[in-house]
Each structure stands twice: as structure tokens, then as C-alpha cells.
Automatic annotation (TrEMBL):
It comes from Hufsiella ginkgonis. This is Epoxyqueuosine reductase. Binds 2 [4Fe-4S] clusters per monomer. Its main location: cytoplasm. The gene is queG. [4Fe-4S] cluster 1 binds at residues 188, 191, 194, 248. Cob(II)alamin binds at residues 61, 133, 154, 157, 168, 216, 241-242.
Length: 314
């Protein structure tokens, strides 16, 4: 055992906890051999829909050494976003919990920058890059390998002590660290609640999600009109969807997040159904000033809201 390497590992995990991360797991950087055929098959079946960027950088998605020269370790981190707050009007179009507060990309990147500064300040010159689901990194595969949890039948990462309402991010570095060698064991068992509950039947088989049918894809990633086959199947979601997580038994262990940046503005929770249906660009800009909802833009959100209403206009 390399005592200095172990010390570095302990220091990094302690700092990650101090920064507010729920979990920190470490894997040895290398080619994800088991993931290659799964990803290739998923893409060949067109389950990525219009997300053509998923076809790019195939090799980089599977090999972190192509993203960071001399990469030795993948540090996987999870940040809790679970909230029990709800929109006041039960008939109002719904927004996924993850989009209640500030854009998580900015919040997490700031924490990763602080963690990288800590590593360089306490260990020395270390090369590395931070990733928050906007780069070719298979974050769930790395998080599973590092022992943070298992990939459930709904394709979300699940932790037996905290459920699945958390974001995943990575630091890929050329620093050798102690790898966690206990990959998350699958505890889904015979449960099919997520499969049975999916409004658009996007979970086409256990552990396989047809992204092109997922409500999150339809309301965020899809830039063209929402296909008419999904009319009256959107479960009143205008941005994202939490159904497969809300019904998951493991989320009874979810704990409330403590990240102030994820607190929802009062306007978001208190808007009534008719206010959403009549939303203006000015209101959109105010309510979602720091929100990931900006990604869909005003035109995208109003398209989604119209699609939820009577008729077939999208």
C-alpha cells in the first residue's frame, strides 16, 4: 500500500465532503470495455433521438485518458438536490425538482474548481479537468464503478442510503489515488415500479431507456415539435420529469439538500396554471434568471405548455 497515495485519497474525500458533496468515489482511469457495446447498440437503435452530439467522440466517452493526458484517476462526485417543496397549484404545469434553483452546472463547476485548487495547493502540480454532464464522459458508469451506487432499471444511479436525487460530476486527473473496488450492487430486484409508471413508456426494458420517448428529452432536448403520439401522455410536465424517481422505493431514503443555490424562487412555486399559460418573456427572464430552464428558452417552454393544453398544437 502506498501510504502517501492513501493520504491524498483521504484528503480529497474529506475536502469533497466539506464542499457539500454527498458522495465521493474514485476509479482507476481506463477503457470502459463493458460499456462500449451497450453505448454502440443504444445509438444504433436511435434511442438518442435528436441528440446527435451523443454520436460524437465515441472513443472519448469510453476512455478518459483521451480527455486528460496521463489520466490515472476518475474522481466521481454526487451533489444532492432533493427537495420536498411543491408547486402551490396542483394543476399548474410541472417542473422537475432539479430545475427549482440555480443551474447546477454553474454550482457544481464552482465546487469542482475549489476541489482542484485544494488538490494543487496541498499535493502539488496536478493536471486535471472537471466535467458536469456536458462533455463526453459516461458519468453513471464511473460513479457505479467507484461504489457510489448502482444503475437502476430507470437508468438512474441509485444509492441505497440516499436514493437517486443527486447530480453526478467528475474530476479526471493524472494523480494516482486509491480506487474504490466495491462497485455498487444492484438492489432493484423484481421491482418494476419505474417501468410501470413511465407516462410515455420510455423504459423499454429493464435498464434501457429510449431517450427519444422520455419526457425530459421531449421537453428539453427536442427542438422540433413534440410528436402528436405523446399528446395527453406528458403527465403535465413542462420541463423535465421526476416520475421514475418519485415512484422508486429507494427514494424514501432521500434527504433534503442543504445547497442554498438550489432553493426555488417564490415566483416559481406560487404561479398558477393560468399564469403559466399566459407567461411573458419578461416573467420567464425574471423567474428563470439563474435556472437551467433557460436551456429550453422562452419559445421551448411555451411550446411545452401549449402541448399540455387542449388541442394538438405544439
Amino acid at each position: 500500500m502506498n501510504l502517501l497515495q492513501s493520504r491524498h485519497t483521504e484528503m480529497i474525500k474529506a475536502e469533497a465532503a466539506r464542499l457539500g458533496f454527498l458522495f465521493c468515489g474514485i476509479s482507476k482511469a481506463g477503457f470502459l470495455e463493458k460499456e462500449a457495446p451497450r453505448l454502440e447498440n443504444w445509438l444504433k437503435q436511435g434511442m438518442h433521438g435528436e441528440m446527435k452530439y451523443m454520436e460524437n467522440h465515441f472513443d472519448k466517452r469510453l476512455d478518459p485518458t483521451l480527455l486528460v493526458d496521463g489520466a490515472k484517476s476518475v474522481i466521481s462526485l454526487a451533489l444532492n438536490y432533493y427537495s420536498d417543496e411543491k408547486q402551490a397549484d396542483p394543476e399548474a404545469p410541472r417542473i422537475s425538482k432539479y430545475a427549482y434553483g440555480h443551474d447546477y452546472h454553474h454550482v457544481i463547476k464552482s465546487k469542482l474548481a475549489q476541489l482542484m485548487d485544494f488538490i494543487r495547493g496541498h499535493i502539488g502540480e496536478v493536471d486535471g479537468r472537471a466535467f458536469v454532464d456536458s462533455a463526453p464522459v459516461l458519468d453513471k458508469a464511473w460513479a457505479k464503478m467507484s461504489g457510489i451506487g448502482w444503475v437502476g432499471k430507470n437508468a438512474n444511479l441509485i444509492n441505497p442510503k440516499a436514493g437517486s436525487f443527486f447530480f453526478i460530476a467528475e474530476l479526471i486527473t493524472d494523480l494516482a489515488l486509491d480506487a474504490d473496488i466495491d462497485p455498487g450492487k444492484d438492489h432493484c430486484g423484481t421491482c418494476t415500479r419505474c417501468i410501470d409508471a413511465c407516462p410515455t413508456e420510455a423504459i423499454v426494458a429493464p435498464y434501457v431507456v429510449d431517450g427519444s420517448r422520455c419526457i425530459s428529452y421531449l421537453t428539453i432536448e427536442l427542438k422540433n415539435a413534440i410528436p402528436g403520439e405523446f399528446k395527453d401522455k406528458m403527465d403535465n410536465w413542462m420541463f423535465g420529469c421526476d416520475v421514475c424517481q418519485d415512484v422508486c422505493p429507494w427514494n424514501r431514503f432521500s434527504v433534503l439538500h442543504t445547497e442554498r443555490a438550489f432553493e426555488p424562487p417564490a415566483d416559481l412555486l406560487n404561479m398558477k396554471k393560468h399564469e403559466w399559460e399566459e407567461i411573458t418573456e419578461e416573467v420567464f427572464a425574471r423567474v428563470f434568471r439563474h435556472s437551467p430552464v433557460k436551456r429550453t428558452k422562452f419559445a421551448g417552454l411555451t411550446r411545452n405548455i401549449r402541448f399540455l393544453g387542449p388541442g394538438t398544437e405544439s
